[in-house]
Amino acid sequence: VTKRGKRKRFGSAMLWPVGTWGLKAELFANLHKLGMRSGEPADPPGYVHFGDFLPKEYFLQLTAEAFVAEVVRGKFHEEWKRLRPDNHCLDAHVYAMAMAEMLGLSTKRADDWSALRQRLQPTPEPDLLNGLRVAGPVSTAPVETRNDEASQAPRQKWKNRG
Question: 159 lies in a domain?
Fold first, then answer.
């Protein structure tokens, strides 16, 4: 998809421009924020949480690039420079941020999240020992089937689609 919203194909894959500069800058700014783990009363918006189970390699890949601003031949030059060859975790985090923006997750309010939680809440599994329902008698009467042309037309259309 182009910046103007037009579909454009490169080979067989659809590509969307993500805007990695802004997202990387936002991520690195969020990495510097202090949260409750460092004694603050609350985690600030954008604070990045990490599990203790993550290996050192994850953090090396997450910080595998640095923003460099320098003067080159008399002109101001800015770029993200790679510090290490592997930056897969950084790329994955940036693309996850882009997808979250595309889905509008940053603009959802508390009641939106509550409604989503209610909609996606799994139905409770029945307890094997509590609340068993006895099924009523099973009907053995034959089920009436329709074989008229109107009911068979969609099936015929499907069969003849070739």
Answer: no
d(CA 40, CA 21) in angstroms, rounded, equals 29
- AA letter at 120: L
Q: What is the pTM of this model?
A: 0.62
What would the pLDDT profile of 13-25 be if each residue is shown by its tens digit?
Answer: 667 778 889 999 9
Which contiguous run of DSSP H or E holds residue 31?
Answer: helix 20-31
Domain count, the chain: 1
Evaluate whether residue 138 is within a structural domain.
no
Structure-block tokens of residue 36? 């409750």
- DSSP label of 37: G
Return the number of other C-beta atoms located less than 10 Å from residue 84's C-beta: 12
Q: Is 48 left (phi over 0), alpha (psi -120 to 50) or beta?
A: beta
Rounded CA separation 48/38 (Å): 13
**Residue 62 belongs to domain spanning:** 19-109
